[in-house]
Design goal:
Helices cover 47% and strands 11% of the residues. The protein is mostly helical. It has one domain: 3-Layer(aba) Sandwich (Rossmann fold). It has a 3-stranded parallel beta sheet with strand order 1-2-3. Helix 1 packs parallel to helix 3.
Length: 114
């Protein structure tokens, strides 16, 4: 069995009227799903791909435009998705690029809606 491409689109959002109104438990949950979940999926996928010597390897972790600039009412989501973007850059530079792999983090998908 081989694994060449992984798409990780898990993510949650919590709207609040400001960072002072985000309960710590909610912040931890958003960081846990959005950032730690991305780390865990990426780690397992890359490990599997390298063990199986897969070709054309790609890990696609969905980020968010909120991670590029931040939104005042999405403090936890913006922080977590900004970290996802940074994490993907590090993975691409550090390990994936040296092994014929791609690490991507789209933040905005254009589509046609009828």
């Amino acid at each position: 069995m081989s694994l060449s491409i992984v798409v990780n689109s898990a993510g949650i959002v919590h709207n609040a009227s400001g960072v002072e109104n985000v309960p710590e438990a909610v912040f931890d949950k958003v960081i846990g799903v959005n950032l730690k979940g991305t780390y865990l999926v990426t780690k397992e996928a890359v490990t599997w791909m390298l063990q199986k010597n897969a070709t054309g390897r790609a890990v696609l972790n969905i980020a968010s435009v909120s991670g590029k600039g931040g939104y005042p009412f999405l403090s936890a989501c913006s922080a977590s998705k900004g970290a996802v973007i940074s994490f993907n850059k590090i993975c691409g530079i550090r390990s994936c690029a040296r092994r014929n792999s791609r690490q991507q983090h789209p933040t905005w998908l254009h589509g046609h809606h009828p």
